[in-house]
Design a protein that fits this description.
Distance between the termini: 47 Å
Helix content: 10-25%
Radius of gyration: 16 Å
Low-confidence stretches: 11-18
Mean pLDDT: 85
Strand order of the largest sheet: 1-6-3-2
Structural class: alpha+beta
Order of helices and strands: HHEEHHEEEEEE
Shape: globular
Number of domains: 1
Number of strands: 8
Largest sheet: 4 strands, antiparallel
Length: 173
């Protein structure tokens, strides 16, 4: 028991401030898929790419990017955390293996988005479950954004389906 406490304490100290890594480790993911996530409590996308320009009534929105230039071009200049996440991504079109998935959700400000699980539906198709964490109040909805860096050992996915709170959307990569 004492050893478990020491290991848990060391893990807590080593991952201090790295909430994304803890959620990545906890996510259910096939072995040949590597996924990293970062939650952004605002809307880092320009209006034409954002959920605010999606069809009326849409609560969940997803976009996929395969090149750093494309991903950078659709983010607002003030989004430093997003630019840092993009810079750490080895995009497929740039000679790497990763795809950037941006999931947006209109939800009360008291909620956060967290990666729940990743599963394979076909050889080049993925299903991603995103959890809403927090308490739901009847406040006006705001834009919540979850960035996902996906690297699939079988090659880049062709189709990704995202489900958040019973709402589902799909994106072709």
């Amino acid at each position: 028991m004492k050893r478990r406490g020491v290991v848990a304490g060391a893990l807590a100290v080593a991952t201090a401030g790295c909430v994304d890594r803890i959620h990545d480790v906890a996510a259910s993911t096939p072995r040949d898929i590597d996924v990293r996530s970062r939650y952004v409590g605002t809307d880092p996308l320009i209006e034409s790419e954002s959920i605010v320009s999606a069809t009326a009534g849409a609560e969940t929105h997803a976009r996929a990017y395969t090149a750093a230039a494309d991903a950078t071009a659709v983010t607002v200049t003030e989004a430093d955390a997003v630019h840092e996440f993009i810079a750490g991504t080895a995009f497929v079109d740039d000679g790497g293996e990763a795809v950037l998935l941006v999931v947006q959700r209109l939800a009360p400000p008291s909620l956060d988005l967290r990666l729940g699980s990743v599963s394979r539906t076909r050889t080049h198709a993925l299903r991603i479950a995103v959890d809403e964490v927090g308490t739901r109040h009847e406040d006006d909805p705001v834009v919540h954004t979850l960035l996902l860096r996906l690297t699939d050992g079988r090659g880049p996915p062709e189709r990704i389906t995202v489900s958040v709170g019973g709402d589902r959307t799909s994106v072709t990569v």
